[in-house]
Amino acid sequence: MSNDSIQTATEIKLKMNKVDLHYGAFKALSNVSMDIQRNSITAFIGPSGCGKSSLLRIFNRMNDLIPIARVDGEVFLDDLSIYDKSTDVTYLRTKIGMVFQKPNVFPTSIYDNLVIGPKKHGIKHKIDLDDIVERCLDQVALWGETKDILQKPAQSLTPGDQQRLCIARALAIEPDVILMDESCSALDPVSTAKVEELMMELQEKYTIIIVTHNMEQALRVSDYCAFMMINPERAGELVEYSLTVDMFSNPTDQRTEDYITGRFG
Amino acid sequence: MNSNSEKLSHAVFFALALSSISALVLITVFILVQGAPIIAEIGLFKFVFGMTWAPLKGEFGIFPMIVGSVSATIGAAILGVPIGICCAIFLAEFAPPLMRNIFRPAIQLLAGIPSVVYGFWGLIFIVPSIRDHLGGPGLSILAGSIILAIMILPTVISITEVSILALPSSYKEGALALGLNRWQTISSVILPAAKSGIIAAVILGIGRAIGETMAVIMVLGNAVALPESVLDPVRTLTTNIGIEMGYAVGAHRQALFATGIVLFVIIMVLNTTAQYIARRK
Predict the structure, then answer these.
(1) How far is residue A85 from each of residues A29, A89, A102, A222, B184, measured CA to CA in Å?
(2) How far apart are CA B237 and CA B85, in angstroms?
(3) Cβ <8 Å between B178 and A92
(4) Cα four-point dihedral sign B130, B131, B135, B139
(5) Tell me, what's the ipTM?
(6) Nearest by CB: B188 against A105, A107, A116
(7) Other CB atoms within 10 Å distance of the CB of residue A198
């Protein structure tokens, strides 16, 4: 194998091949194929109800929570086939962390929110856990303001800080990929700016996928952009997937152009 | 005209609502008036901690009955609470919808069985089993605890289940997204989050157990003595009133009302604590 091909092979972090998602008899996503680049930020955009969140949740199998959901096709994290029967879904989720739309800190202390994942994955010593707490809070720029109140309820933080705590909590299990499902939509502009800044810092170490309704946000933070829409059969499909700069300056599909220029959606 | 009829309906509903409150007030006042003088006469300490209950000699100490009530109730909690909480977790988190639809009404039905039927079943089934297999008279704390444990299940299960289901689904999603498995999610996120509701469920279950009369009259043996093991018979505060009220007169009758006051205070404290804990968030 030449150096070049190795390079290319390792640069694809996540891969989807002809994926369909059904909820019972209803087809929610149709024939989605995409490669997600390592250490990139990829944004899923499109009108409401087009299946952006469903597509995101395919990567960490959160759709498993819905008994009638069924995924066909192939999805890979590196070489790991995500939907293979032998795949350990809890392991998968330690590799692919997730941050939700609303900050969902647990009703415990700041400290306990952060260590709950590492503890369950076998880290027992307090020194190690303390290290994780400091490192993760530091990564989301919360350490300064929370280091003296680690035992306070996490829910006493502002929503913006709670969301950053949720990101820190996802980082604590040392994932490779972070999924963010409209993670700024419940935040004010200042907090949003902080989270966006954080995403761009995290990009060095992690592969990030965001779902957003906010096209300016997609343009500001993402390297790649995937535009989705509902097809005539009411299933979501991937219309266009390219470098963000290309999509916004020179969309190849008329529907993409109509959407990003604000003609609908 | 219209506003008159509105005023009238307002008054009618207010009067009816008042009647339920007034029942509480009347009962409270009545047992206080009837029971307080004898407590004052004997002395609260001597009444509550007195070891001898001999109405004919004018000795009224209810401590053995307090021990009886508390021991049967603790026994019921030890047996019933773990089963109840596990059942609620199963219903809220694991059971498929069909099974849930069978379990829920079945558990509600358990609450609808008259307590005398529980007592009767205990008397002809549990009491002889204990006598044959474990020894003693059979009529015992253990028999009462088993019956009470079954009787508090509906309370414990339904309140625990409601408090688990009331949690936002985002807690569960958040925990699963951290790679926690189902049981880790329940034990380290769901249960701690539902803690106050579960504690309230347990306290209300205990209140239910301590107030129960008919079923325990039939299986506890009703002996006024400090028990030495769970196989000994005891008398509870409730059964003391239930058994003797029919023929008690004078000071004896007052002492039974005073027993009622003690019971009333215990249950008030339990219910208030449960409400306080359930509301605290």
Answers:
(1) 21, 10, 31, 33, 21
(2) 27
(3) no
(4) positive
(5) 0.88
(6) A116
(7) 19
Q: CA B64 → CA A220, B227, B251, B262, distances in Å?
A: 76, 8, 19, 13
B180/A173 Cβ within 8 A: no
Handedness of CA A182, A187, A189, A191 (dihedral sign): negative
Rg value, chain A, Cα: 19
Q: Per the structure block, which two tokens stand in for B181?
A: 């498995």
Q: State the smallest CA–CA distance between residue B19 and chain A in angstroms.
A: 41
The values of phi and psi at residue A69, to 5°, are -80, 140
Contacts of B164 in chain A (CB under 8 A): none
State the CATH architecture for B63-280.
Orthogonal Bundle (1.10)
**For the segment A83-96, what is each residue's pLDDT rounded down to a tens digit?**
998 999 999 999 99
In chain B, the residue whose alpha carbon lies closest to the alpha carbon of A155 is B281
Residues (pLDDT < 70) of chain B are: 1-2, 281
CB atoms within 10 A of CB B150: 20
Question: Is B184 an 8 Å CB contact of chain A?
Answer: yes
- What average pLDDT does the segment A135-161 reach? 92
Q: How is residue B199 written in tokens?
A: 């504690």
Q: Residue B179 and residue A65: Cβ atoms within 8 Å?
A: no
Q: Which chain B residue is nearest to residue A90, measuring alpha carbons?
A: B179
Longest alpha-carbon distance in chain A: 57
Give bridge partners of residue A237 from the DSSP assignment.
A229
Nearest to A97 among B168, B177, B184 (CB): B177
Tokens 């803690």 locate to B195
Domain boundaries, chain B: 63-280
Q: How much of chain B is helix, strand and coil, in % rounded to 5?
A: 80, 0, 20
**Cβ contact, residue pair B192, A121, below 8 Å:** no
Which residue's structure tokens are 């692919």?
Answer: A96
